[in-house]
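Entry 14. Ran structure prediction on the chain below.
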Amino acid sequence: MNDMRRKIFAVLFALLFVAIPFCNICADMIGHSAITLDQAPTAAAGDDWLHCSGDKILDSNGNEVWLTGVNWFGYNTGTNIFDGVWSCNMAESLRSIADHGFNLLRVPMSAELLLQWSRGEYPSANYNSYMNPELNGKNSLEIFDYALEVCASCGLKVMIDIHSAKTDAMGHNAPLWYTDQISADQYLAALDWVSKRYAANDTVVAYDLKNEPHGAASETHAIWNDSTSTDNWKYMAERAGNTVLANNPHALIVIEGVQIYPRDISSNNYSSTNDGDYFNTWWGGNLRGVSRFPVNLQNGAANSQIVYSPHDYGPAVYRQPWFYSGFSYESLISDCWYDNWLYIDDQKIAPILIGEWGGFMTGDNLTWMTYLRQLIENYHLNHTFWCFNANSGDTGGLVKDDFKTWDNEKYEFVKPALWQTAEGKFISLDHQVPLGANGVSLNEYFASSASSSASSASDDKIDLTNAVDMNPNGTADFVERLYSYALDRQSDPHGKNDWVNRIRNGLSAADCARGFLYSDEFLKSGVSNSEFLDKLYRIFFDREADSYGKNYWLDLMNRGMSREEVITGFINSVEWANLCLTFGVDSGGSALPSITVRPNEMIIGFAGRLYQTCLGRDFDPYGLEYWSARLANHKISGTDAAYGFFFSREFIDHDLDNGEYIKRLYRTFMDREYDQAGFDYWMNKLNSGESRLSVFYGFADSAEFGVICSNYGIIR
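Output, structure tokens:
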């Protein structure tokens, strides 16, 4: 990422604990017993390699898989082991990562450390020997090998990331893969050694060739073109990828982007030092060059191993231009994500793996995180969350300072974007070994009917055989019941319309319910904890409280749990998800619905009109059923459905001119013919070089389309 705050906190931790040689603590102190691997399920050697087809990553049997992982740094900082093992047991933490459902561990490392290991030099691993007695007597390389054994035993796969050339907590700030101390040839030698060492170990399934190549136009910077320049990341990625594949033809080659790409490469092939002449984004996040200069491995013969990997962060890390007031899911797609990297997945050029994303759960940073999680879920994008570590200064981590206690709020936020069955079992990338204590192996998953889960990589048709009906009045009835259950009265027209409009414009049902529960009117009612719980059961579960459940919550409240924590528990329940689905509103919680709803006439009508307004024809029955079911069950939003029509092969084959394109946008998103002033405005944008996708989202974000979606009872 392009600021100097990244992992400042990590530097302080690294300096502190490098200075305290925990591995020299007296070994005969009473310590934790070593974790044995004897009882672990046995993995079959060599059956877990992955490859790609279009935008999908496939297992050795051709089944689609979903890589949903996490980062744990330390092998790049000078700790020479995972950071935090100064206060936790390494094996227990690795198992905990698997138990929490992460199926891939991205391990940042330095090229310098790998080169040292290749020469038989083993810098000391700084860990707490009292808490890790099984590591005593092992050098830093042997400890890493042991970590891989632990990962294999719990179904956790590994991606090695060359995070920096030098071993240094701030080494990632160097813009290129080489420095004045580590040459480009030495960088390649490090990759050669590590890929050769683990060529037969399918716990290590991927290599992220280099973390965040970057640099602004006025600085030393990485470029992306067809040259053989020493600073051309595309050229070096080909050399590096071929180096790895020469040792292991089955490894995934994960390729990040750069920071800048010329606005007009025909007139400025990185010759300008003016930042305004370039598209600028996050370090490693600019993959625009792939459209014209794709990476070719082994002269194209090994391109099925390529995965492109942008990094993306929120305004808490750096306030990029697209984080203006009121930014939305649609604006992030049009202003940043699509042109920088999402097009690669959308056009099925290659799979995307977002190698780093995450941050603090506050303000508009949380808004950005929510939108990116939505994108990950909608597109089933592979990803590794940043990060497990507590000591990431400008993002925080999934665990607290002891590296044992999980931050449950953040984990529950990430959890919906982890690969899991309908029953909540986490899915391993190992064919034989289940993922942690609450997981299944790939063989178990693909043999099970759970493959139709809403959280799986499957895109099967929705089974409506036993579906329940959706409330045809949707949002309005949902708001009315909040007045009744929370405030014990009927709505007033002005207040009800205000809430309906806010939900229509993106407010979740959870935040709407909070609005009632934190209103002055409700707070002045002075309800007791018992009365408060009775209201929550009616609001969130649409039923009276059962004695067992109510007593459970009362006991927690009597022991200090806040009302907000209780509300959050109800919001993240399956019952609430089911209830919201029947009203056609976004629950705002982390749980997936366990029911399926049958599309009502309004939703079927919305899907049917897309055929007319966009494609200019009547619907076909199968297509109508497909789109209606996905809309009714919140698989997609109204915008997603319109996107599916406007960027379908059928629509593209019509080869419409800009004028006709705009006319169809008016009919679809505004339910009317164009007005001349508006038509001229949008034509000018297209004729000035703005993309059709950007104009599409301009219409999709309109208030008129929000009204249409609300009237049809779907999420915009």
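Confidence is low (pLDDT under 50) at residues 1-36, 449-461. Will compare against last week's run tomorrow.
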